[in-house]
Amino acid sequence: MNSLVPAQAAAQFLSLLVFATAAKWYVAPRLRALDRASALVPLLWIHVFRYVALQAFSAQRDGFPVSDRALVDIVTGDLAGAAIAVLAIFALRYRLRAGIALSWLLVGETAYDTVANIHGGMQEHLIGAAGGVTWMILAFYVPLVVMSVVLIAWQLYTRRGEELGPAAGARHEVTSLAARVS
Length: 182
Hints:
By secondary structure, the chain is an all-alpha fold. Helix content is about 80%, strand content about 0%.
């Protein structure tokens, strides 16, 4: 058995455990204190950087044994996720209800992309084949994406009846007015 398989699996599992612990102790309490849109935006920002998947082209060139078809699937899924996240952030910044729909779309797209990539990786025997930057992305960034999508789904579901909150400019005006009054 290739020793890189358990090493990669252990690194991903440990990262997921660390991110889950940090989310429970630090992120979740902070999110509860924010309005709905303000709680979603930082979680969405994590997905904006999914264009890091473009690195897979150089990884393939340097010997990562991914097929052209699987490579295109990986990159397309992550670029779609990044684009959806950017659109959701803009919509939520301006308190448009479309931001909620886009956030749900990101949850679904990320779940599908994650399952499809695991399935494709198993079919092509890619688990444990990654090295260098690809290994780091798989060991640290992918678990962060997974944890953030869990938190996004949690925020969307548990706060489904809640308003988005004041618009970004209005929030500043309310804060300034409150400071002047007190």
